[in-house]
Amino acid sequence: MKILIAEHIADEGIHFLKQTGFNVDIKLKLSREALLDCIGVYDAIIVRSVTKVNEELYEHATNLKVVGRAGNGVDNIEMDGATKRGIIVVNTPDANTVSAAEHTIGLMLSMCRNIPRANAHIKSKQWDRTLFRGVELMDKTLGIVGLGRIGSMVATRMQSFGMNVIAYDPYIRRERFDQLKVTRIDELGELMRQSDIVTVHTPKTKETLGIIGAEEFKLCKKGVRVVNCARGGIIDEAALHEALENGTVAGAAIDVLKDEPHPISPLLDLDQTVITPHLGADTYEAQKNVGEAVALEVFEALQGKLVANA
Ligand code: NAD
Ligand code: MLT
């Protein structure tokens, strides 16, 4: 069996796969052409979020049996194409939850206290304390869109900051809201009206793409702040840009961009934004968990075993 690791995973995962006796090739940052040229010989491919595993790739991947997604969302994998060819797709939905939740909170604090701009200011040998006045989180309302794994971790952690946490997730049972002591909001518009900070934690689907856009910003309190550590485009970037420019939105903290990995968004040019290059899962702990989990799942799937996250 031949496995192609096309995006970086932790050494622990690579080591595990190598000691199984499988043939493991690590080819990072291949051009699309080079990937299409070589994929035909592989039984499995492991990717993170950059490689598009789509019809074009499947057509060249005549031996492919398993796609390992080292991470959570599978929005870069065309599932129908895999299913109709009998290709198994595995991912690691739990392995980086803590890191993504913590990064969300880091972004929120950075945005509310202007930490990145203040850091850049003092490192340019200036000292003006009047430029960076922020806002507290205590007693503010945090609106969470998507109360799944990451959304619920953000909820409990932000309750300890004294925030009033509300959430919109029509797919989660009422008891889960009660268990988390989070107020259930039945309409997204109502969540937008009540929140001081809105953070999105849904998967990227046809339904959630642009779920927060111009109409939703019209409903917000003036000076709302928003966070997207889920997927680029869940908050419509053009509408967000407009809302930041006209002052409806006071700040935005973003880990994921619609057109990543090409940093061309106009949001990059605004002082009111704090932006990181998709670092939510980038901790030693999460990468070790993800690398080990995806390696084991790919190994088991290639052996025809039942895999939990297939
Ligand atoms: P999850 O599946 O556990 O939770 C997602 C929640 O969104 C579910 O409860 C679901 O019911 C809800 N949801 C779906 N559609 C909705 C809609 N239209 N309106 C409201 N709620 C809706 O997922 P998760 O593990 O919590 O991940 C959340 C997001 O974070 C995903 O987009 C994932 O890809 C992303 N993620 C990003 C990073 C990063 O590095 N920035 C790391 C891990 C995960
Ligand atoms: C994920 O979905 O797990 C994250 O976005 C992390 C990643 O893609 O590397």
TrEMBL record:
Keyword Amino-acid biosynthesis: yes
Organism placement in taxonomy: Bacteria, Bacillati, Bacillota, Clostridia, Eubacteriales
Family membership noted in the UniProt record: Belongs to the D-isomer specific 2-hydroxyacid dehydrogenase family.
UniProt keyword list: Amino-acid biosynthesis, NAD, Oxidoreductase, Serine biosynthesis
Repressor in keyword set: no
Domain of life according to the entry: Bacteria
Function as written in the Swiss-Prot or TrEMBL entry: Catalyzes the reversible oxidation of 3-phospho-D-glycerate to 3-phosphonooxypyruvate, the first step of the phosphorylated L-serine biosynthesis pathway. Also catalyzes the reversible oxidation of 2-hydroxyglutarate to 2-oxoglutarate.
Organism: Fusibacter paucivorans
Reaction(s) catalysed (UniProt annotation): (R)-2-hydroxyglutarate + NAD(+) = 2-oxoglutarate + NADH + H(+); (2R)-3-phosphoglycerate + NAD(+) = 3-phosphooxypyruvate + NADH + H(+)
Associated pathway: Amino-acid biosynthesis; L-serine biosynthesis; L-serine from 3-phospho-D-glycerate: step 1/3
Enzyme category, top tier: oxidoreductase
Annotated protein name in UniProt: D-3-phosphoglycerate dehydrogenase
GO MF assignments: phosphoglycerate dehydrogenase activity
EC number of the protein: 1.1.1.95
